[in-house]
Amino acid sequence: MSLTTSAFGFIVFLLSTPVVQGQNDWGVTYTSTQICAVEGSTVDIHSYTYPSRQDDLDIIVEKTLWFINMLDNEPVDLRTDSKYSGRVKHLCDKNSCFLRITDLRQRDSAVYRFRFITNHPGGRFTGSPGVTLTVTDLKVKVIQTSYSSYWTTLRCKSSCHLPGQTSIIWYKNNKKIKENTELHYSDYIYSQDSFSCAIKGLEDFPSPPVCVRGENCNRVIYTERSICVSKGSSVNISCTYNSYHEVTSKFWFRPEPQWKNPSQSEDLLTDSQYTGRVQVLETERGRSTLRITDLRETDSAQYQFTFTTWSFEWGSSLPGTTLTVTALQVHVIRLTVHQSYTEAELQCHSSCSSVAQSFYVWFKNGQKVMKEEALYKDNFYPGDVICCVLKGHENHCSPSVSALKVPSVSVSPQSEIMEGSSVTLTCNSEAQSAVNYTWYKKNQTLLNKEPQLVFSSIQSSDSGQFYCSAENELGKKTSPYININVKHRPNLPSVSVSPSEIVEGSSVTLTCSSDANPAANYTWYKGNQTIHHGPEGIYRFTSIRSKDKGTYYCKSENQYGDKSSSISVDVHYRPNLPSVSVSPSEIVEGSSVTLTCSSDANPAANYTWYKENEESPKASGQIFTITDIRSEHSGNYYCEVQNSVGRHNNTLHLTVVAVFPQALKSAVIGTSSVVFFAILAFLIFLLIRKKKASKPAEPPEPSEQHIPTQSEEEDDVQYASVRFIKNQTDPIYSNISAARAQRHKDEDEDESVEYAAVQFNSTASRTTGQEAVEDSIALYSTINKLC
Prior knowledge:
Shape: elongated
Helix content: under 10%
Structural class: mainly beta
CATH topology of the domain at 2-136: Immunoglobulin-like
CATH class of the domain at 2-136: Mainly Beta
CATH architecture of the domain at 2-136: Sandwich
Number of strands: 66
């Protein structure tokens, strides 16, 4: 065993050989069975062991406790003993469990035992006989020197061994003078001086003052260092005092600076807060008693006594008597909760051991219960209020406990709750005792543990059902649900189109949704035209058309506001019948010809050119160009237009015809226009003569002889139009429309032949007129005659 000091007080560590009390692996290991500690210090007492497994069962410790007393053959846990209140800690870690007692008092001297209970049927063990703790105070020992009665050595002693390095503080006439292990005086010690000592860190537990010379020195000795009493009771705080000279004044006071009022005297007899409650009694010489009645919790303090003489004043460096005033408490020992009532056993408890054996009075709903014991067992219904008092102090009932009612829930404000506003929910159980409140949201965890649930800026997501619970010593009650409905204008609508790819002729649905309270009405627009309005934000096209594509707007609205969103609708359709064309309209063999194809489609179409009866495409794209066209290029060409929806095609017929032989071409090209018309007139003349020669000859009548005019001759024959194309070198093909040559009629019918346009190309070479005539006669076999 050794003693050490710290800023928090003395701690006693046990260093002696451990003592095992037990058998068959069950036992308690006490570090020491004998402990001696100084008053005010702290002591630690250790520990226990048990097997990890026995009888095929893993051993689990379910309860551990330290005790000194037994009640009904059961140990009383020190943690529930009032005289140890606030001074006992029970610390466990695996197989190590120790008891720590702080602020040791001499009355703490006792035998301490440890008990543990496991899940094994026989797994209970108490370490006996336990640990004997002895708590002692300090004393000043006077050692006189042999050579002079005026030289004295003072030592601070204890029945417990103090280590050599312990720091001691010395006091003279209750005033601190120095810090040293021993006290030697070289100065003269007067008979009126008294001395006391204290261990550094434990200054609240000094030794009693000692007169070094005789017994008539100045000193004050308090009867008790600490007193604990219940609220409403009375207390006597006493001391004995002695003065070397005659006392001129004396009084009791509270030394705390925060208590003193500069305008008031320190004497408690003149303190307004004690008026009518304080008196000082001195029934014998040298003994003073301070009596305080109708104690309040604010009376908890340290009280000191002081006196003065004509040349001396008693100091106040060391403490006097500490008074603790506590209220009685109702503790629930056993509790059984039924549907309509609670069965409970209550105990009237005080943290002061001095009132442990007192008589108590119980009150239920303000009526005295005919029972004067610390324990009270009864059935309690919702709303019952119970408290206890010390007998004779019925005006100072303990804080009451209540059998809780089902808590009610209120909401503020009671009007409509708008998003962003402040909302407060309040839980009230109408209990007169302390109640713990907890707030919950349905199907969620707890929200807080306060009587009120406050939303500083409530949101729509906070809507839902809420409830609270109220709990105290006599049980727990839960409130009904309260519905919180947060009103707000519509949020920005979410718009969608289904299906994602829209094909002309298909069914299409536009959907608009928006969170709103109350529910929103929806309006669909295209441009300035309203196409839908109602409580549902759905608009359907049963068979959508390409003209329906565009931007659509949805507006959601309620009485608090509106919001709008838009969506683009794109209608896909297969290509329309393509339009095909050829350029130029008149084609010359060897020239460049362009075929063009166009079609309306969504998405944009791909174009492919084919020649009939050929598998491979001729070209891709809208334009197909033949750079050097020949007669073999004649035929049907078709353009195919295709996109993801479908396809379409259209056909173009192209005919390429060869031009005149080279000899005729030279004659035609070389003859001027004048020569050509002359030859043509000659041919017409020959034809007319031949026609006339075929008729029978009749002698002309001189008087009726008629010479035909030129206009009359022209009425008999209609010629095809003749076109000349200049500056065309080596024409091969001509663009021929879908018109076809008519077959010759029967020989008995008038000859009638319709020609297509005949093209003559002139070149640089020229021929004679006669050659041109011969070539023309050889080339044309018939001339269209019109009747």
